[in-house]
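ok trying this again, last paste got cut off
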Amino acid sequence: MDQSEAMERFGFEAPDLSGAQVESQEMAQMPELQFDKSGYTDFQSFIFKVSQLPDKPATKKPAVKTLAVAKGSRVVNDKMEKYLAAPGESSSALKTALVSPRHYLIYKNEKLKPKDDSHFTLGTFIHSAFLEPSKFDKVKVLPENAPRNTNDGLIALIDYFWRLLGKEQKDLSEFKQGQLKAELAELEAEAAEQGYTFISAPDAEIIRIIRSSYRTYGGGIIPKLIRNGRTETSMYGIDPATGLKVKIRPDCMLLEEQIGVNIILSVKTTSASTLDGFMRDAAKYRYELAEGMYLQVASEITGRKFTGTLMLIAQTVIPFQCALIWLDAEDLEIGKYKYQQAMETVRQAKESDCYPGFECYAEEGARGIIQARFPSYIKAELKPQFIPEQYRQE
């Protein structure tokens, strides 16, 4: 049964799911995770390899089509829209499966996804420009005092686009307003096709600051990493444990041909003012699952061992700075476990055609009634209170 049929069948009134449960995350109570750390690149080794990195790739990057070695897998340079439309379990979907199968089902239902009607989003632009720095040069501010409801304003905008696109100027004095608007619309479409982004002056100043941090951070290491990496690469494969289709699209891959090891580089924007704040948000959004999934799936599809994750973050709030974070091997191993658990949850839900919501946390036979407690910090001792005599009413 497909997703829409499942939604129609179950709606928001769940059937009797007293026997349905989601596996407990026992590793959350583990004081220390036992795993083979030799499967990960240690920090000092990575720093040494980065120090040897040339400004430009010293060797030719392997062809995309040669990266896929697992049966039924493929690696391609495709557009994000095509990747999003392709079948397969993504990290975003699997994060919801860790909440409940019903959350996963609703996430996968296209009709319920909110539409994004925004035109310019700072975080989206930063993410794109970090991976394709030439986009920084194509951020422009439209002329001020050029209202689109007047002929003079339209002519000023048309003249701006002619100069920007290197077009020959012509006399517009006899054009009616409808003709001017049509001419402007064509020019704007052409500019968009050429990769130009038009923003407000305040946003342009923010991007200028972010670009400066991007170029100078760590002595210029960020552009060097990106130049030696592979971006816009989608991977499609089959999870060997569950038989389900999976897909990943790492922001950037640093391959052993360039750096001596295979590393995933992920770009994140944040509204956190501190690094600790970002890491708390990262845990909230289950970044560890996504990063663990990238390492595991990329290794399975390519036959290469991906052994580490570097996270490039950029603030979308003052002071608009960048940072590079090397993720701990234990956190990545936990992410792999969560990925595997989420995949197993999805497999069971699909095979049983049953997508319980929060009732999956209830004990068997409890009819979905969950026993829960407040967080432990409510036990904190209350500070004593007293009312001084002079404040008491007679």
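PB: full thing came through this time. The first strand starts at residue 74 and ends at 76.
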